């Protein structure tokens, strides 16, 4: 039997795969529901009327504002507002605008808030977030699939029929990466369709021109590669530790404790660019293409800090090196150690 196809079939039939798949789809649907409920194309007539009534009441309760509107010489005659006359913007305003700006007149817009979901401005960031979450799910699924075989003894039985360990490891890793690519692409496409529909009905789509597509696809492409690396890392850790809990412990340990130590170090020690020790910084640099870190300790009395630029190439080399390192260790351990 073809090892790769068999591994694909095993991953597809796992109950955990079904659970994770349902959670991923539910997450996308939930995100869409939240955007649908919170987004609006603008206030209706009733909301505008209520807000205008609140603004009128506020202005009535502010005696200075009423006096200002009635008296053209209010600012010149009132010493408390002499500073406004000296403002360079004062000369370019009408008297009503001066009263509203300097005295504090309110309009309906000050008492009403509506959020309009813009796919052009927010859609790409949401798609990247969806892809990263899907990658984390695939990371857990890959480590679980490898760890479960070690725990159940399935790996030992498999080696009886397929003693070539590198083919076994390659098939398992390749299947995990293939499933990851398909799952992440599917979830992103689903999110794109639902969020686009939400923006068209409840918000605004915006101008999705060639520049938008180029930038979005570039970031999504790098995010897709990141999810493949996450999946490979999860599988490698499980293969190296021969247990799902070890992979999960290493990952959770860094995400919680490791980054916390970085934050503590940055607060207690005079370290330049402490953010560079956080894996999150390098992930953001990889996805966005570039990130700038500022060293305010070097600025002295000036407000011009030193700048450290981390490019996508720098981040890719570091993140890729981590994945390759653990992959090589997992390969070495699987090749050298007893399968029992």
Question: Can you describe what's shown?
Answer:
The chain has helices at 3-13, 15-38, 45-60, 63-70, 74-77, 82-85, 95-103, 119-152, 154-161, 165-202, 210-241, 244-268, 279-288, 312-336, and strands spanning 290-295, 306-311. With 340 residues, the chain is mostly helical. It has a two-stranded antiparallel ribbon. Helix 2 runs antiparallel to helix 8, helix 11 (210-241) runs antiparallel to helix 13 and helix 11 packs parallel to helix 14. The longest helix is centred in the middle third of the chain and has 38 residues, at 165-202.
In the predicted model, the low-confidence regions spanning at least 5 consecutive residues are none
The number of domains is 2
Proportion in β-strands:
under 5%
Shape, per Cα inertia axes: elongated
Q: Widest sheet: strand order?
A: 1-2
Q: Helical proportion?
A: over 70%
Averaged pLDDT: 83
How are the elements arranged and paired?
Blueprint: H1 3-13, H2 15-38, H3 45-60, H4 63-70, H5 74-77, H6 82-85, H7 95-103, H8 119-152, H9 154-161, H10 165-202, H11 210-241, H12 244-268, H13 279-288, E1 290-295, E2 306-311, H14 312-336
Antiparallel strand pairs: 1-2
Helix pairs in contact: 1-10, 2-8, 2-10, 4-7, 8-10, 8-11, 8-12, 10-11, 11-12, 11-13, 11-14, 13-14
In short:
The chain contains 14 helices and 2 strands. By secondary structure, the chain is mainly α.
Keywords:
single chain; 340 residues; mainly alpha; 2 domains; two-stranded antiparallel sheet
């Amino acid at each position: 039997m073809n090892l790769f196809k068999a591994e694909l079939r095993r991953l597809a039939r796992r109950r955990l795969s079904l659970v994770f798949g349902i959670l991923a789809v539910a997450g996308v649907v939930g995100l869409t529901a939240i955007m649908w409920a919170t987004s609006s194309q603008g206030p209706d007539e009733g909301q505008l009327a209520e807000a205008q009534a609140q603004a009128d009441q506020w202005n009535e309760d502010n005696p200075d504002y009423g006096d200002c509107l009635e008296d053209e010489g209010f600012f010149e005659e009132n010493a408390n507002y002499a500073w406004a006359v000296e403002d360079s913007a004062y000369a370019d305003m009408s008297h009503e605008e001066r009263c509203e700006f300097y005295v504090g007149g309110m309009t309906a817009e000050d008492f009403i808030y509506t959020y309009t979901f813009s796919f052009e401005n927010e859609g790409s960031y949401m798609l990247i977030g969806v892809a990263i979450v899907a990658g984390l799910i695939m990371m857990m699924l890959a480590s679980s699939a490898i760890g479960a075989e070690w725990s159940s003894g399935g790996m030992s039985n498999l080696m009886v029929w397929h003693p070539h360990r590198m083919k076994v490891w390659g098939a398992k890793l390749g299947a995990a990466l293939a499933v990851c690519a398909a799952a992440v692409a599917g979830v992103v496409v689903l999110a794109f369709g639902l969020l686009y529909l939400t923006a068209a009905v409840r918000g605004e789509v915006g101008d999705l021109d060639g520049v938008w597509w180029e930038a979005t696809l570039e970031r999504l492409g790098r995010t897709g590669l990141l999810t493949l690396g996450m999946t490979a890392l999860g599988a490698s850790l499980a293969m190296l530790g021969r247990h799902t809990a070890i992979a999960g412990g290493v990952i959770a340990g860094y995400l919680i404790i490791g980054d916390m130590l970085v934050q503590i170090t940055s607060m207690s020690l005079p370290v330049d660019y402490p953010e560079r020790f956080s894996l999150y910084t390098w992930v953001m640099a990889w996805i966005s293409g570039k990130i700038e870190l500022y060293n305010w300790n070097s600025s002295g009395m000036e407000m011009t800090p030193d700048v450290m630029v981390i490019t996508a190439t720098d981040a890719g080399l570091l993140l890729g090196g981590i994945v390759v390192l653990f992959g090589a260790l997992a390969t070495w351990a699987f090749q050298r150690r007893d399968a029992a």
